[in-house]
Amino acid sequence: MAAALTLSATMAFAADGLPNVTILATGGTIAGTGATSTTTVGYTAAKVGVEKLIEAVPELKKVANVKGEQVFQIASENMTNDHWLKLAKRVNELLAQKDVDGIVITHGTDTIEETAYFLNLTVKSTKPVVIVGAMRPSTAISADGPVNLYNAVTLAGSKDAVGKGVLVALNDQINAGRDVSKTNTSTADTFRTPELGFLGYMQDNRPHFYRQVVRKHTAEAEFDISALDSLPQVDIVYGYANNNRTALDALVKAGAKGIVHAGVGNGSLSNAMKPGLIEARKQGVLIVRSSRVGNGIVARNGEANDDELDFVASDSLNPQKARILLMLALTKTTDAKAIQKMFYTY
Ligand SMILES: NC(=O)CC[C@H](N)C(=O)O
């Protein structure tokens, strides 16, 4: 299956001088407008349509045959599971076509890392999928959107990006959708993979790759959203000094099927929170221990006896990414041991 997909992706690339890249626009700052050229905070996101984004970068024509589609027009803090299902289905439809070589998704930066990981697990193709955004609105001095879009289209049209999983490309760097995070509220170099490292650079009209993710993704992933119109409810509970179980209990009462605990340190559970998590698990709610630290491994049977409690350790996924894997895992099984395996696979 994966070999056939690789072959078809390669053949499509060879069919024409320029690759065919579709840009799916979803909103964000890259499509934002401010009152003046110096407005870089307090602008309005998700205003400019995809055709205007493309027109603003005439250089795109030199690197790809570009088509644009406005999938939705939102600030990415409003991204929902429904948006993800719609987007993943559209990406899969397009990538199944022989005349589409790669996809670029323009996106608000706040939840890029979540959409990237969701697609990394649900896209059924090895063809390149690149998510891009901007930190300055389109009207700003030195707007970063145009160069980021140019690099993203170049990357999505490159054979070097085939089979690398969903990529996030901003600020001349290529990051893996699995590992990347927004690390600064406002600077242009916000997207980083601090401990594991980014994959390569965009320079001189081409990608330069130095590493790749070994965890399974895209064509090799077992998740199939093609027949789904909703995902199981999974929520996040935060760990902090003097915390309590009030929010946890409310989420469980509201019907959460899974809870990701963004614990302190190595996924530690306070004496105030732990009994609530144990009760929730007894009621059938899946519990994943992650960490608010944002880097490192949450070790199974480390800060809690996961074997005894039937909990899952998040491995290296941060809470917002662990939430996505748990939702998708719950579409396949409710067995905590099987879900733990998925956390070591993806
Ligand atoms: N830089 C941005 O894209 C942030 C704008 C907005 N909050 C969003 O995520 O869509």
Automatic annotation (TrEMBL):
One of its GO terms (biological process) is asparagine metabolic process. Residues 233-343 form the Asparaginase/glutaminase C-terminal domain. Substrate binds at residues 76, 109-110. The keyword Hydrolase applies. The active site is at residues 29, 109. Residues 20-213 form the L-asparaginase N-terminal domain. GO terms for molecular function: asparaginase activity. Keywords: Hydrolase, Plasmid. Belongs to the asparaginase 1 family. NCBIfam families: asnASE_II. This is L-asparaginase.
